[in-house]
Amino acid sequence: MNNEDVFIIGHGMTKFGEHFDKSPSSLASQALMETVTNAQLEKELIQSIFFGSLVTNTNSQASVGASCIRECNLSIPLTRIEAGTASGAAAFQQAFQGIRSGLFDCIAVVGVEKLSDFVNSSTIEKILGTTIDYSWEFEMGATLTSLYALLTKAHMKEYQTTLEQLALVPEKNHRNGVNNKNAQFQKEIPLERFLSAKRISEPIGRFDPATHCDGASALILASSEFVSNNLKSNDLTEVLGLGHASDHLALHHRESLTALSATQIAAKNAYDMAGISSADINVAEVHDSYPIGEILAIEDLGFFPKGEGGLAVEEGKTKINSEVSINTSGGLKSRGDPFGATGIAQIIEIVEQLTGQADKRQVDDHNFGLTQNVLGTGAMAYVNVFGKKEVKK
Amino acid sequence: MEPPKIWREKRQRYLGIGVKCLDCDYKAFPLTSFCPSCGSGNVQEYKLAEKGRIIQFTQVNQTSNDMMANVPYAIGIIELEDGIKVTGQIVDIDYSLIEIGMPVRMVLRVLSKDGTEGLIKYGFKFIPVD
Amino acid sequence: MSKVGIVSYGSYIPKYRIKTEEIAKVWEEDSKEIVNQLQVNSKSVPGPDEDVITMSVESARNAINRWGGNVKDIGAIYVGSESHPYAVKPTATFVAAALDAEESLTAADLEFACKAGTAGMQMCFGLAKSDMIEYGLAIGADSSQARPRDPLEYTAGAGSAAFLIGKKRVIAELEGTYSLTTDMPDFWRREGAIYPSHGNRFTGSPAYFKHVIEASKKLMEQLGSRPSDYKYVTFHQPNTKFPLSAARMLGFSKEQIDLSLVCKEIGNAYSASSMIGLANILNYSSPGDRIFVTSYGSGAGSDAFSFLVTDMIEEVKSYPLNVDYYVNRKKYIDYGVYVRFKGVLR
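YS: structure for the whole thing
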C-alpha cells in the first residue's frame, strides 16, 4: 500500500423517506453510529467529521453537526459543507483532502437533510431556488424544474431524444430500487404511468423528478497506515480519483444547453487521477434528479457519445450487467433525494457493489465504480472514481 | 423580501442595465464593477437591447408563494438583439402559441408580492412583438 | 414667448377583456339591456402581474419613445390614480426609475377619483409655463376595483395615459384650462376598503353632469369659443352614455366626440379615461385642429382644457404603439379567469 492511498472503511445510512418523528441530528447520529459499527471501529478513533447539508436557515439543521457529535458523545473537529444538492459529495472530497494531506488518518463524513418538515411546497421551491441563480433565474420566475425542462427540450431538439427514452430512465431506476432496502420507493412504476402523467413543466411529467425527502448517510475514510494498524484483512474500497468543476450558475450564461461542462471536466480530472478511462467503469451512480440528468450524465461522463444517451437507455445499455450499470441503487429517483445525504448514499452504493455486498443488485464485473453529484442545473459537479483493494495483514 | 436587495437591483430589473467594458467591448448582464471577460475596471453601465428572440421555453406550475399569483406562466431564455441572454417570463400570450425563435420585447411587470403587507418586486418580462 | 403645451403622449391598455355579456351571464342579468344602457361591450382587465405602476411605466415609455428626447430633462412626474399599489410609497418614483429619469426631479402621487391624471397635467402646465421645470410628465392610470354584482363591475376597467408637457416642440398648445371643484359624496372608498361605494343615481346629474357641463361652459366662456370651433372633444367616460349625453347638452355633435369613445371596448379607465380619449384624438389630429377635454373625478371636480394642435403633431403621429394598437390587441377571458386575474379569490 502506498502512503497516500485513501480507503473507505465503513458506511451506513438511514432509510430515505419521510421520517416525521426524527430530528435532523438524530438521523445523522443514526447513520454515523451505523457506520462506526460497520467499520468495526472504536468511535473515538475518528479524528474529524465533515457534514454535508444544504438547508441552513430552518428546522435546527444549521447546528446539525454540533448536535450530532453531542448525541454520539464525541468532541472532535466538525465542519459543515454546503454545495447545494451536491453537499454530500463536497463533504466527501473535503474528507479525502484531510487524509491525503496527512493531517488526519481517520475522518467521518455525514450527509443529512430533513425536508419533510417543509409541508408547504413553496418553502422547498425557495430552497431549490438557492441552487440556481437566485436573483436572475429564480426571482425572474424560473424554478429548478423549469430549468431542467429547458435542458430536456434542448436535448430533444438537438438529438431527437424522445419522451419514451426519457421515461425509461426513472422506469429503470425504480426497477433497480425494488431491491434497495434503504430506498424511499421500493416499487416499479410502469412506463405508461410516466408518459401519461400531467406535465408539471413541459416536457417534464409529474412522476419524473426525484422526491425531496429525509435521510442521512455516512462514511469513514482512513489512510493506509490507519488501515494497517487498526483493521483486520478485508475487501476495501479505495478512492482512486476525484474531480470537481464548476460552470456558470445561470443556464442562460452557458455555451451549451445539451451538455453539463462541469461534469465533463470533473470526470476527466477524476479519470486522469485514477489512471483509468470511462470504459473501465463497471457501475456508476449519477445525478438523476430529473430524467435528462441521467442522460446528460452518461454522455458527459464518456460512457456514450454525445447525443446518444437516450438511445443507450432505450437499448438497455444502462441496465444492471449491461454495458455500464447505471444507478443500481435506484438512483435519486427511487431512493429519494435528501440533498446533502444523496452524494454520500451514491458512494455507499458503489462501496457495496465493489465489495460484493449489493445482494440482488450486485453487478458481475465490479472493479471500478463512479459517482456523479450535481449542484442545481450543473453549476458544480463532483465526480469520484473508486476501485476495490484487498487488504491483508 | 429584503429592501436593500430590491433597491440595489432596481436599475437592472426595471431598465435591464448591464455592463460594458471600455477596454475590450465585452457586454454582460447582470451589473458588475469590473469586466467579467478581461477583468478591467474600466467599465460603464450599458442598457440591454429591448428586443430579442426566444431560445428555449417552458411553463411553471409551482413556485414560491410570493409568485404563485402568476401561475401558470411561461419562462424562457431570451437572446437579445445585442447577443446577451437572459431568463425571463413570456406573458400576454397563450402558452400553446409560443415558439422558439419568436420575437419578443421587454415590458415591466410584477415579479412577486410579499404577502399583502410586504414589498412588491417589479422586473422585466417579455411580450410577443406583433 | 413660446407657449406651454403637450409635447408628447403615450397610452397603455392591458391585453385582456371581459365582455359585458359574460359578466351579465354570471348574475343572470339581461345583457342586451345592460349593453344598451351603458353602451359598453367589454372592459379591459389587467393581467395578474399588472398594476398601476406597470401600466404607468408602459404609457410613460410610449410617451418618451414617441418624443425621443432626453429623460433627464424631465423635472416633474405626477401619477394620478385611485388604485396606487402602495398606500404609502409613491408610484411616481417607480416611474422615474423605470424611465431612467432619476434623480433631479420632483414627483408625487395624486388622488382625485377619476380626474387625478388631469390634475397632474395642470400642475405640469403651471410648472413648465413658469419655467420651474423644462418638462413635466403627467400620468393617469388605474386598475379599478368593483364589488362583484355591483353595476360598476360592468365598466371598471384599466389603462394608462401619459402626457409630456413643456414649451419646446409642442404638438398641442394649451389655450386655457378651468377647474370646477365642490365637495360631493357621490363615490368613495375608505382607507383599507377593497371596493368603492357610490350613490347610484346620485352620481348622475348633480355629480358628473353638473361638473362636466359647468366646467366646460365656463372655459369656453373664458376663451370666447363655441363647441363648433372644435374638431374633437373628449370627456370622462364612466360609460359611453354619459359623455354622449354631456356632448349633446353642450352642443357638441356625435362626430366630434366619437373618436374619443374608447370606453365601448375598454370600459372606464378611471384616471386614464379622458386622457386615453385625448391620446386617441391626437393620433388623428392635424395642425390647426382645436381639441376640447373635460375630465371628471368624483368627490368632485372637473378639469376642462382647450388645445390647439400645431405643425409638430406630424412628427410624432407615426409612433406605432398607440391607442388603436392597444385597443385591437385583445384577448377575451371568461369570468373565472377574470376573478383569478383580479385576485378576488382569497
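YS: worth flagging: Residues 3-8 of chain B form the longest helix (6 residues).
IM: good catch. Also The interface with chain A takes residues 5, 9, 29-30, 56-65, 67-68, 70, 73, 75-77, 85-89, 100, 111-112, 121, 123, 125 of chain B (CB under 8 Å).
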